[in-house]
Automatic annotation (TrEMBL):
GO terms of molecular function: DNA-binding transcription factor activity; transcription cis-regulatory region binding
Residue ranges constituting the HTH tetR-type domain according to the UniProt record: 31-91
Cross-referenced PROSITE patterns: HTH_TETR_2
Organism lineage string: Bacteria, Bacillati, Actinomycetota, Actinomycetes, Cryptosporangiales
Leader sequence residues: none
Name of the protein this chain belongs to: TetR/AcrR family transcriptional regulator
Region (Disordered): 1-21
Length: 246
């Protein structure tokens, strides 16, 4: 959902790769196509992780020679860009979006959460510096900006709101992926830590553990807290417009 620089792929200095979408797909008499290659790569990454994806391995999944894939793309970087854009397409929402910015942003955040939940390899791609540079990714960013366009804020402020929501979604998914809640609960059940808690040295942590605070998993509640903070920071006319939309 971020509106950061949409140029895909890692780059150094001013050396930016030409996006694969700027290169027309070569048509050959073959069952292969960019779409088929990307679908096979996405399926492989979903099953075995991003590290398993290579031109040779994807070709094997398709029953083709590795060299035949280079008719449709130049490198694994191209493949990763296409995979990221295919995943971004899953975040696109039916139009029109709700008129209330909070409701619209909630739908965008939920779609992003669900998409990355299905394709956790998207996060490593983003960590490499890849952005929403393909047609689906750009439509996703445009749609996300439309969710807050009615607030009457400067474009830079709109982008900051989207990035804050993005940060929440990615943080939530990171915590879930590493099992932070289970780790805290499990670790503190060890007799050593249990003795410390029972001795009263950490009363606030003890109470949080006793009430299941670290075991609860509420994406929506946390998102609402964030949106409450964003709404409180808005100019009065924007807040009034939000209340009217509700």
């Amino acid at each position: 959902m971020t509106s950061a620089d949409p140029v895909p792929g890692p780059s150094s200095g001013n050396d930016v790769r030409e996006p694969i979408w700027a290169r027309p797909e070569t048509r050959r008499r073959s069952t292969l196509s960019r779409a088929a290659i990307v679908a096979a790569a996405v399926d492989l990454a979903d099953r075995e992780g991003l590290a398993a994806v290579s031109i040779r391995r994807v070709a094997a999944e398709l029953g083709a020679r590795a060299m035949s894939l280079y008719t449709y793309l130049d490198s694994k970087d191209d493949l990763f860009d296409l995979m990221g854009d295919a995943a971004a397409g899953e975040t696109l929402l039916p139009e029109p979006l709700p008129g209330d910015w909070r409701a619209a942003l909630t739908l965008v955040a939920e779609a992003t959460r669900d998409q990355i939940g299905r394709h956790p390899w998207v996060v490593p791609l983003m960590a490499e510096g890849r952005r929403y540079g393909g047609p689906s990714g750009l439509r996703h960013v445009e749609q996300s900006l439309r969710a807050v366009a009615g607030l009457g804020l400067p474009p830079s402020r709109q982008a900051q709101i989207l990035m804050a929501v993005d940060d929440y979604v990615l943080g939530y998914l990171t915590r879930r992926s590493v099992g932070a809640a289970a780790d805290v609960s499990g670790t503190l059940e060890h007799p050593y830590y249990r003795a410390l808690l029972d001795a009263g040295e950490y009363p606030l942590l003890r109470d949080a553990m006793a009430t299941g605070g670290y075991a609860e998993d509420s994406f929506t509640e946390g998102l609402n807290w964030l949106l409450d903070g964003i709404e409180a920071s808005l100019p009065d006319p924007a807040r009034t417009g939000s209340a009217a939309a509700e």
